[in-house]
Every structure is written in C-alpha cells, then in structure tokens.
Records
---
Amino acid sequence: MSDCEAPVAVTRGRRGRNQQLVLDALRQTDKPLGAYELLRRLRGLGVYAPLQVYRALDRLIAEGIVHKIESVSAYALCTHAGCASEGHAVFAVCTRCGLATETHDASLARLLARLARRQRFQVQATTVELSGVCEACAGTTA
Amino acid sequence: MSDCEAPVAVTRGRRGRNQQLVLDALRQTDKPLGAYELLRRLRGLGVYAPLQVYRALDRLIAEGIVHKIESVSAYALCTHAGCASEGHAVFAVCTRCGLATETHDASLARLLARLARRQRFQVQATTVELSGVCEACAGTTA
DNA sequence: ATCGACTATGTTATGTTATTACATTCGTCA
DNA sequence: TGACGAATGTAATAACATAACATAGTCGAT
C-alpha cells in the first residue's frame, strides 16, 4: 500500500478525495465502521453528508478494497489482496468487541459454487459471516 | 382486541397474537418480506407500530421458525424443520424477483465450524447468502 | 484554449430499517 | 384476589440508505 500521509490528499490518481478520506479512516481502525461513524470522523475534513460517504464506499467496494459486513451494517478494509477477483471472504464478527476478522477459504468457495450450480443459480456476490465471541473476549468475564 | 376472525386463533399456545399474525403473513408469500412490508399487510388487524412487528420477528427468529436475510433486510419462513438446532442455512437471493431459496448443507456447516475453531472463535450464528439471478429469471430477458 | 464528455462532488430532502423508553394489559398460579 | 412475568400498546427517535438535482474538476481532441 502507498503511504499517503497527507491529511487530505486531493484527487490523487483515479481515486477521488472522499474515497481517499474514507479509506484513510478505515485504515486507522481494526474494527468495521458504520457509514455514519465514518461521517462523524470525517467532519471537518470536508465531509458533511451521508451521501459523500456512501458514494465513496460504493466505489471502494466495487474496487474490492472494502467489504460491507451485512450483519452489522458496517464497512471494513479488505485484508486480502486479490479479493476483487476472488470474492468469498468470510468474516468472524465479535458481538462483544466488534472486531471482524476476515479469512478466505478455497474449499468454501468451491462448496458454495457447487450449491449454486445445483439449483442453477448465477451467483453475483456472496455473504458469509459468523457472529459470536472472539478468542480475546472469551477470555474476559467468560 | 375485538374480533380476530382470522383463520388462526388468538394467543395460541405460547405464541402471542402478533407473532401469529406475522407468521401467517409470511406463510402467504414465497418471498422474504421487510418488517415494514409486514406492517403494511397487517394494518387493520391490530398491528400499527413497527415495534409490534419487530418483537414478533425477534421471537420467531429465536424459535428458529423465521430467518433474517441480512443482505436484503427481510424476513423469511424457515423451510427446514430443525433449523433452530442446526443453524447453517444458506439463502440464494434473486436480485430480480426477490425470491430467496433456502438450502442446507452439512459439509458447509462442518467447514465453517472448522474455520471458526481455527481462530478459536465461538460461533453463535451464521449468515450465508448468495446474491444473484435465479434459474427462472435467467430465462427471461437473459 | 476551449469545447465536450465524463467523473466526482455538493446539497437538500426524504425513504427505509430498527430501537429506546415507558405505560398498560393479559395469563397464570399461589 | 393479588402478584408476577410475559406480551402488548404508543410515542418518539436513532441508525442506515437513497433520490433528485445542481455544480465543479479532469482530460483528451480539436
């Protein structure tokens, strides 16, 4: 990944300003953030309306750089290089601390593909999420 | 509550009235319904507020009778008997017609369990959804 | 340089989904 | 009957997402 430490990095490459801001905000945390949480964090940097965030997210998701985690309506950076092409991320989302861990598994991808083929369903996107308690949280007050 | 001449009884067993109404509404369709769509369909039957629907859904989901389909924020009857105990339903959701087909697969369940164990994640619920085009819709205007 | 096309943005308003908080009613059983 | 817990009613609001329309930057071809 490139550095981009400039606070605001104006329209760099093919990436818009808001897109870069949202990306930077997501880089600064290890938890998925909701669109309005992103909005709060970017106030004062020229981002004032939900649409600015949603548009940026749409593009980042289309690029495969960001995933939406449906079960919590939040957005996380993709921690896997070629996700755009391969898809099939699995998220383990902790209900206590909010951490979402992304993993990938080729046999899962095959299995889902087989299930879809069996019913002649043309898959465009897959959502696989596990909700539960992560190892760290299981230790505390378990 | 005056009449309720509806086919199904008032507060039957341990099931509340609203719960039964929501269940009946879901039975009358093959597509997942949003909470507010359910609300619209139940107006005039004594259901006027979102909370009435959400509470009913919460309980039905807890019973394993209804699933929430996260990727479309809608609710569908479980078409699989012992879902409450086994979990691991897979939904194929058609983006054209809205139909959601539920399937189950033991090896998928094992695979997800293995993935979770690998990172010592205690799974409470799983969400597996395929978004795409169903066989019927692929035929039309394909 | 400037025109045009395209992409990104800004702004306002609104639609959709879900929850909080608190009061009331119902069912059961000692 | 009265107490208790479960279910319900009601109002308000929070959280998530998009529609519609106007404006401004980017870039290539003339």
---
Amino acid sequence: MEQPAPVSEAAARPARRRRRSVEDRRRQVVLAARRLVLREGFEALTMRRVAALAGVSTAALYLYFADRLSLMAAVADELFQGLLAAFREAAAAAAGDPDPRARLRALMNAYVRWGLAHPDEYRVIFMTPITGVAGHRPGAAGVSAAPSGQATFALLQEEVARLVGTGVLRPADPQVVAEAIWAAGHGLVALLITKPQFPWSPREELSRTLADTLLRGLSA
Amino acid sequence: MEQPAPVSEAAARPARRRRRSVEDRRRQVVLAARRLVLREGFEALTMRRVAALAGVSTAALYLYFADRLSLMAAVADELFQGLLAAFREAAAAAAGDPDPRARLRALMNAYVRWGLAHPDEYRVIFMTPITGVAGHRPGAAGVSAAPSGQATFALLQEEVARLVGTGVLRPADPQVVAEAIWAAGHGLVALLITKPQFPWSPREELSRTLADTLLRGLSA
DNA sequence: ATGTTCACATGAACGCTGTTCATATGGACC
DNA sequence: GGTCCATATGAACAGCGTTCATGTGAACAT
C-alpha cells in the first residue's frame, strides 16, 4: 500500500508487512495508554480503558503485551522521555555556571521538580514494580530493558564520573554514588506523593537541603 | 459478665460494655490482618481474606473501618512498632560509641536494614497512600494519626536536633534535616523493593555510602 | 412476662479488575 | 477455489472493594 513492491518480492514481504503493522498497533496502544495517564491519572490505567481508548478489544492487548505490567513498562519507556528532556534542559541551563557542581545540582533539582510536577507519570515509571519493556506475547522472552530509562540514569552516572574524574568530588565509585543520589531524590518525591498529609517542610527548602547536603558530603 | 454491676448503674453500662467489645473486635481484625501480611505478604491483604482469617463477615469490616485504606492504616500503626523497636535497639547499641554521630548513623542504618528485611511490612507502612488511623465507620472523622509512626520519626528528629544543638552538625532546621534523611533512606529501600532487577551495587555499600555522604554533608 | 427498639452482623449483589479461551474472520499461499 | 494460520474478539472466570436490604439478639420499657 505504501510502496507497491515488485511481484517477485511479494513472497518475502507479508511477514515483514505484518510485523510492521503489529508494531504499529502496539505503539498505538502505548500512546493511548500514555494519553490516559496524562489526562485521567494513574488509576485510569486499566486494560479495559486503554483498549477502549485505543479502539481495540481488551483481549487484543494480550497479543501485544504479556500482561498489564508489560504494558505499563512500555508506557514507562515512553514517559521517560519527558524526564529525559527535563534532564537535558537542566544540564544545558547549567552549562554557563562557573561552579563545576552546578550541572549535578541541576540534575538533582530537575529530577525532584519533574517528579512532583508529574506525579502520575512518576508513579508509573518509578513506583510500579516494572521489569523493563517485555516482549510481545508469542516472543515470550523480554527484550530491551527500558532504553530511555537507562539513558536517563546514564546521564546522572556520567556526570558523577566526570566530577570524580576531575577531582571535584572525592574519590568514589561513580556507580554507587549515582545510585545513592537517585535513591535520595526518589525518596523525596515518592514520600511527598505517598504521604501528602505529613506536615512537610516547604518543598523547595527540603529539596535544596537534600541536594546541598549530598553535594557537600560528596565534595573533595 | 466481668464485673456484675449494681442494677442502678445498669442503665449506663451497656454502652460502655458494647464499645469495649467493638474495640476488641476491631483490634482482633487488625491483628488478623497483620498475621496475613507477615505470613503471606502484601498482596494477601484483601478485605475478604482479612475477614475470613478474623472469623467475621466481609461486610463487618466496614463497621470498624471506613474502607480498606483505613484498615491498612491501623495495620501500619501496628507494624510501626517493629521499626520502632529496631530504632530503639540501634540507638542503645550505639550508646557506648565515642563518635557523637554514631547514634544518628545507627538510626539510618537500622531504617534501611529493617525496610529491606521486612519489605511487605514496609510497603504497608510507607508505600501505601495512608492518611493515618481513621476512625470507625459511624465516627466519620479520623482520629489519632498513627501514634507509633509519629514516635518513630520523633526519635530521628530529636537526635538530629541534639546534634545540631551540640554543634556536631552544622546549624540547620532539625525538622528539615530529619525529613531529608528520612527521604533518602526511604528512597533506597523503596527503589530496591520496587526495582529489584536494576543492576544495583551491593546493598551494604550503597547504604553505607548514602549514610556517610549525608553525615559528612551535615557535619559542622 | 411480653413487647419494642436498635446496635450489630450478614448474605447477596453491583460494578469493577486482570486474564483466558473457544470462536470467528479474513488475507496469504497452494 | 480451497486450505491454512495469524489476528481479533465476545464471553466468561475468579477475584476485588463496597453497599444494602435483611436478619438477629440482647437491652430496655411496660
């Protein structure tokens, strides 16, 4: 339809064309799910609602995803790009700052701000027991594990490694340090989301104190 | 039955006796729910299963609790005592240490260790959107907000205040600092529980790095 | 002793969930 | 034109939280 192939190649085509179509539909489902989260929140992310919004039957979802968590993993991978964009933006904004720690601080702040600004998306990505983007139903074995997520963490990890390498931060395993920073940021976002009735100090102050303390503790 | 009151007081008694009985039942339900979590994990905590184990009908639960979250709040209050005990134990163990920061460090480590050792209980307490111990059905308005939880956080907050007061930690609002420490610890536990497949560094190393970094950043 | 009242308890139902499966359907190949 | 097979579906299953009309039995008044 898109490109009328020679008849001689027609034998090899169908499989490809079919697979293409399947992946298109799969992607369409993921996008519908994303729209659902953005518009109606985390709780709206049910198989029936996603199917209805995507215009397919509920059972059809199980042709593209092993189960609900696999679908959510695919959605998470999509949502990650929002956080990734915020990361890149923060890093760019801190480019001119003379303080070598500015970029790392900007990443920390961007993470917390993004999480608090997008709690429903944050819940999908970081507060749901998701393994990574699992493969289609027949393919059984899971495939690529959330590339966007890895890219995002890599950004943090590389920045830490850079600062350790240049001696700005005291000698340490960048992997461990990056994980610790991530954990600290996640804890703040997650607790504020889960326990909103706790008498929290102002969020700005809290976020600043956490980032400052970590940076001070890590500095050489 | 327990104490045959004079007939003249009989008019006032029933209400009291009845209330007592109701609270006993309520407590019995909470204990059944706790046993369920301990033995079968977080997912087993359903209204039907709790009711069955407590020996009452499912509908009866709604006489004692407004909804499922209220029941879980009561269970959380019960589970908190485990963490509180771990906190007290850790504080006592650090009593002889010459380092004035030893107790705070011990609290941080105890928190993370307890959470990782009791993930199902941790999920009930800290990873479920719970408001506090809500009142009975008719009473409508919620009552005491998780006393054990408050006591636990108070322990951390007081220790921070003590160290700030003695000049061991740099001047800061103990409330903000305590919240930040809590958030950091929570993040580590929560992420390890939610994303067990992530290629984490060894837990001991992670926990130590996080605690050391925070202490170093907070020290005067 | 009898009648009345009312807090407490329940079985059954409602609408929702994730998931499975027998049954179509329709295009690709022989 | 007939066969096959990937794709799609409606219906069903078991479970969930929650509600409500219906008991039931002890406490009180007469």
